């Protein structure tokens, strides 16, 4: 098996910390694979890199150590104190591999997180890109890795006003050369990955590799990339429930979704600008599955006392036979990081598998992981899983032929 | 198009009344097809009998007129007073086609509903069967029907102690001949249908055509039948949500389902004996989708003030990555009859279609309609719909070839 | 018994229509007194005017007849079609007593409701006041009433920027004389009532009689007035539940309240300006009962499909012994008008009683009816009821002495 | 200040362990007084024994050490690992003061808990009583205590078939002398306390001091006692919410309460016999506050995965003005022990205060703590708190006079 590095943008955040701690806890036999999609049948049949063999590094603009973050999270329930202790040395080791990151156009609330400024404070865009490329390269070289998967798990940026201006690779590269200060950090990270053929995963609603120019670049270099906005909680439930209404020809009149959460992501989303991108991808799921939906609102509010936990209340007002008005309500209470972290590991494993087999470009079979899957107009969770099932079947058949 | 009769066992109950009133309201343009699965794409492409052309009749042990039942239901919201008025004459007409039914082994609480006794009070089993066959035949002849679909929508019977004794057609027919008073009414109705090649739908958890002997008979005569226990509310939601947990490898520890309802069905289910069958089919869905589920309880309670409405509260305690304990809760509030009635019409249309095309035996593609689909071990709602999609595709291809 | 007129500001709205229809339905024996606080022990012992004897009139800026409004409401469930029919003639009679109203500073969304403009479109403020006073007087004279109670049930205005400038009667009257176009309609209606000694009830969060100058006027004239913002749903529950946490020394960390509703009030509250006043009075209840509450948010959203119904979801995150984090959630589903209408009748009866006995000024014993009770800093529902109990006891003792 | 001992019946259970751990954590400054009713104004003004000065001992039929129980609880969230460590030595010290208890007539599921049998296995009833009295006395003497408060926190017994046979002190004492094996353990513990003038608190639904004969004894000896069935969760919420419906003259049609919990208490309540007593006191609250309630059901189910947590779902179907049907639902999620433990400490402090002042017999001012307060027919939580407020006022006035 080849060796795989995982480079996390936002490496000191809750999701990254939980993913690293979880991977190391698995390696030490301190926890099991519950919550890891790639650990279940039939996906477990793919020849994926072992979670315990993944090597972690990353960028961040914060100074707080991974161990401190893990302890903060632990005081709120996840991971357990025992787990934190078991992986403390691993976290310290990864800490030394975290480089200073960029935060350009991430919004004021992300800037507030930066303890010692960021790359873009001092450098033109083209040099920021060079520094990022150097960091990726050094990580690969220092750890003798066969490949580095770059994963964006940083806080959500505000959406770009005019993404179409970067619709070609040429336009994007010219903007970098001309020090275009409208380019958001997530796109620079993605560019730096794709141009050097590192597989790229955009776990967030930020721009990342979604720009036309970067999609073109990924095709040119035949490097796999995927995204956008991992589907971890309320939207996951929506994508499972909405097809039920459609299937039974029940007319949904209003779907209200009200989310409260208390971590840094919640604080950043307090900012209306940053929230806009998130709401767009959360809302899109229902619009796709229930095209006749009259009223579709999603709210995300910051409730500090919840810390890393999030609660969603959804209220579905629907009409049945003889115009009967009926209701479904649900509440979902989960740990943001415990829901997200295993999906980071799943995506790393699956995109590394694709990269090894030379399957570049958009990874449509990964749609089930995302609220706004790039290049796939399928939001029904079951059908998204069917795409992954087919991928596994195909590889199983190929393996059998060999 | 050929003409289709619908013979309802339990014709004066809420589900039957709402199905008849709804079909007639559709015929008069008083309502739309919301809630009717066969009215949506792609199922609407099948050459199904028009809802407005269906001719209704049935058996019951109650005296109350359909119009009285419809008005009672209307005072509780569904159908609207305007709808009841629009179909009043139709209901009176169907009333005259309702014959006295049988209630053998339906339990004491069903006996309480019988206003003037039932067939089995006075007759040996074999004569009860003969009378039922005569009733079916007379209905077909009097209304010049190409086929009669028999649908069991009567209150739930207690489960049979030893169903295996009726495992062959020969054993069943011998029991009828020997006046075996353990045979439940639902099986007699099913036998009378299948032996004369009337398609049969068991909408309830009662025994119906599930006995080995009746399945054999259906094969012998090549008559289509389907069942068991229509999936209208809480279990429908379960079959949409449980695959999400399985898909994401989230370990469900406990799934509590608490149902309250206030109609006659609720009153009959107060009786622990009658409730047993219902609980078995409701519980089976989760056991199939989540084989490692530690704790799976379903409660059904009678709450008179709810009348024909039912509310379910489900509490799902699950574990995610790093053994994180999380929760999903939902409440579902619906009109029992408004949820069930369109499915009666869907099933009649689909089984009539099968019968016309000579597709006898178990109808596996109808699994999505049932809590305990006969002959299919698939409870995932999306996969059940996929079975119906394939059926439609196949017929579309055949039609294209012709 | 003396005769009592009820002059409703916003007479064509849902609350007014339901109050009138309900009072007349009671008069005709078509419904019972459920929901009417003054109909229960011990309040029923007070010598209050009979609901059936109340004479209704009012102002509005809309043209739609009461009967049309009642029918619209009825299609959504309340009142029943039978009730509407029973009171149709009464509604037509009241319709003829509704005069054109004022809408100054009620916000753009209220202006949108005005079918034919409003008084203030054409007249200086002082003449608007004169017209209103004339309307009150004519109503009293034409129906030979002993007293007229003026009740504001109009849509919520935006809050005043600088209410302190009207802190004395003299300042208020000077503003009227100087055609101060910052004065809101609700204050003009209240002024016109108080200056001519009509008891006044502010059922809404609008300014009404809350200005210092109007409170002074009420004292001068010894005329009873009360308000502000009737407590009908979510806030009622809060005022019952919050004392439980305080009583048990449980520390509430966050209280999230999310309200959705679909009627005109909901539409008007879509406007952030109009919503501000409502949120202030809804939030104040918790701040008073739970002074250490860390986080208190109330949202009100417009969900058109709900029509006159409102649903609230409240999520209470609290801490108990040994810093244990626990949660209470509730959902409340009610008809806005059916909850509000009986309280209008209660308040009319109680303030008429006070007026008859010469009890002018603020009516502190009516605190239980309001989210922001004028002149009383008590939000605990039980203690508010205790104030009313004491009032009844005092009158009972006085009656016994006589 | 005088010294107070606390003798816990069921001393190794979750509630006792949490109460002891919590008291010691407070003594060490490891936690604050959140959740302790006597720590808040105005109750904190009473001259109560300090929580940190309480000396603990007790009876149990289990062998497991307090520290083991505390660690088990801690793995489920409460108390925290840090707290357990801080009080570990204290728990070990209390462990040595726990004597073997009695379990007569506690039901088969309690018997299952007994690791090494119980007192009543070997001894006649009169000797069981003597042994218990000796244990109380030895505890007092060994720790040089001014008083010992006996608190029953053992698992719920099945209710007595014929409690009236013990309606006088004489009848009770004769039964003890005659070795009447129908006497339940809780009554023996209560008798042993009262006869030697130890104040007694019945925290559970078991019989305890509720028998007529024991109430007579308490009067004779002028020893304070109180009970029955501490109000910690769902019923607490009910007693806060039900008065709201009554106050607003809203007619509650159905109140469904569904409780799930996973600790030993839950397991014991699986036994229908043991559950009967619990359901009676839980149901009584609503019957008292809402005498016209049509339908009142409480269910308690055992859901092992919840461990020491309990969740309640309550569904309230009520009718308002114009016969409008509306709904309130709530879910309550709390730690059983963290809710109960501080109330144990509150009751000990308050009954010790009463005892010191010679206030014997039933303690009516403690009604707010119980589901079925002995000797008080008041279930409205606010009015129950008012009784305690009056008690504090009276003592404050007396102290001022002195």
TrEMBL record, chains A, B, C, D:
GO MF entries: inositol-3-phosphate synthase activity
InterPro entries referenced in this protein's UniProt entry, alphabetically: Myo-inos-1-P_Synthase, Myo-inos-1-P_Synthase_GAPDH, NAD(P)-bd_dom_sf
A UniProt-annotated Pfam family: Inos-1-P_synth
Signal sequence, start to end: none
Residue ranges of every copy of the Myo-inositol-1-phosphate synthase GAPDH-like domain listed in the record: 233-337
TM helices/strands, residue ranges: none
Record SUPFAM superfamilies: Glyceraldehyde-3-phosphate dehydrogenase-like, C-terminal domain, NAD(P)-binding Rossmann-fold domains
Domain of life: Archaea
Family note: Belongs to the myo-inositol 1-phosphate synthase family.
Protein name: Inositol-3-phosphate synthase
Source organism (scientific name): Halobellus litoreus
